[in-house]
Amino acid sequence: GAVVSQHPSWVICKSGTSVKIECRSLDFQATTMFWYRQFPKQSLMLMATSNEGSKATYEQGVEKDKFLINHASLTLSTLTVTSAHPEDSSFYICSASSGGAETQYFGPGTRLLVL
Amino acid sequence: KQEVTQIPAALSVPEGENLVLNCSFTDSAIYNLQWFRQDPGKGLTSLLLIQSSQREQTSGRLNASLDKSSGRSTLYIAASQPGDSATYLCAVDHNQGGKLIFGQGTELSVKP
């Protein structure tokens, strides 16, 4: 199956700093990428949908100025958590597909801990 | 608003048992339903995808069924093994746009 990678796999940062997480599709062109957040013992919650070359569409309650998403190429999307705070500590997972309704392939996740 | 519920939240069985995981959704107008496996601290592995027009899908020891009208899906695991221990998530694609709505998951433990 298709492979999606995320970098870094985990990151620890101080409160107030910004953190960038990369999501790459390694062997296919990802027209659409999705970003999810998962708190401990909870399920995945969709944060935003990004289509290559377009602005991301954010879910209700997700601050677009805090979670900056860039999908500048067909193989790379980035999520930047700006001015991170301890409550942003979570497991962030991306998925990629070759079209909105096509099969999504999930990355391994990035664990963020904000001190 | 579509909501997905999974029962039970946790399940522990001895090795070799057959088991069933349940998933229900409130709005039957779905495009497809998927079952995923998640190991601790890891991403998701897709197990089975059932299109809205299908009733079931099978892969090895796994069989997933879908009853759209009643808003239910089941994942049947035959002859469970310790390696099956993981959290199993179901998710529905509600609007054909790929936006998946996930259940809370069932944490499965298979004891040797």
In oligomeric terms, what are we looking at?
heterodimer
Question: What is the string of helix and strand elements of chain A?
Answer: EEEEEEEEEEE
Main sheet record of chain A? 7 strands, mixed
Number of helices of chain B: 0
Indicate the low-confidence ranges of chain A by residue numbers.
Answer: none
Mean pLDDT of chain B: 94
Q: Outline the low-pLDDT stretches of chain B.
A: none
What is the 3D shape of chain A? globular
Number of β-strand runs of chain A: 11
List keywords for this structure.
heterodimer, A: mainly beta, 7-stranded mixed beta sheet, 4-stranded antiparallel beta sheet, globular, B: 112 residues, mainly beta, 6-stranded mixed beta sheet, 0% helix, 57% strand
What does this entry look like structurally?
The complex is a heterodimer of chains A (115) and B (112). Chain A has 115 residues and is mostly beta strands. Helices cover 0% and strands 52% of the residues of chain A. Chain A contains no helices and eleven strands. In chain A, strands 2, 4, 5, 6, 9, 10 and 11 form a seven-stranded mixed β-sheet that branches. Chain A has a four-stranded antiparallel β-sheet with strand order 1-3-8-7, with no helix packed on it. In chain A, a hairpin with a 5-residue loop joins strand 4 (32-38) and strand 5 (44-51). Chain B has strands spanning 4-7, 10-14, 19-25, 32-38, 44-51, 56-59, 62-67, 72-77, 86-93, 100-102, 106-111. Chain B is globular. The model of chain B has no long low-confidence stretch (mean pLDDT 94). In chain B, the strands form two sheets. In chain B, strands 2, 4, 5, 9, 10 and 11 form a six-stranded mixed β-sheet that branches. In chain B, 37% of the residues are buried. Chain B has 112 residues and is an all-beta fold. The chains are: A mainly beta (115), B mainly beta (112). At the A-B interface, strand 5, strand 9 and strand 10 of A face strand 5, strand 9 and strand 10 of B.
